[in-house]
Design a protein that fits this description.
Rossmann fold, 5-stranded mixed beta sheet, two-stranded antiparallel sheet, 43% helix, globular, binds zinc ion
Amino acid sequence: MRTFSLQLQLLVRSAAAPLVELLAPPRCGICECEGALLCAECRAEWISDRAVALPAGNLSAAAALGPYEGGLGAAIRTMKYGGVQGLARELGEALVPAIKQVSARAAFQVTLVPIPTDQGRVHERGFDHAALLATAAGAAAHLPVRRLLARVRSTEPLHGATRSARALIMQGAMSCREDVELPSAVVLVDDIQTSGATAREAARALRVAGVRWIAVVSVAYER
Ligand SMILES: [Zn+2]
């Protein structure tokens, strides 16, 4: 019964979240000032038109808007843990220059594919932040967005795990839909890149299915 009422509470909270966002005056997801989900000052300080190129490993390119420490990390935490879904739209739109940067050398039009979040965490939060980021970025960049990847098993959180442990945790954790026609070039979208283990697993699943060119963009990177 207790569990049921907790589930109900979470459900009501997630269902009511967009309404609460509409009724309450928007607050900046970084400095918390009233007026907008990302105020002009914070935009000027943290959201750059030039993405940071990251080591791509076996992907074709990787980039992020900037480091997790500071404003971008604050915005991500407000979005994910504060349940402010509207911030995903702002941050997704901010990803457009990074997407253009990584896809400059792709021979085909790119399709945006969100890196799937662990289902348990999606249920806890009531939304999948990577899917919201990709949808907003696709709308702003006029690029197709497709949810081609799924988690095939749940994974423990990567936070605090070593680089090699992260790779092991993610190994074989995703699969790609094979019942649909697949794009030739994909830009993966996520909120944070740390060791690259999650993006590598997503890329592995896409390659097995036949996708040839794969890059990744995220709001922030963490070292
Ligand atoms: Zn601000």
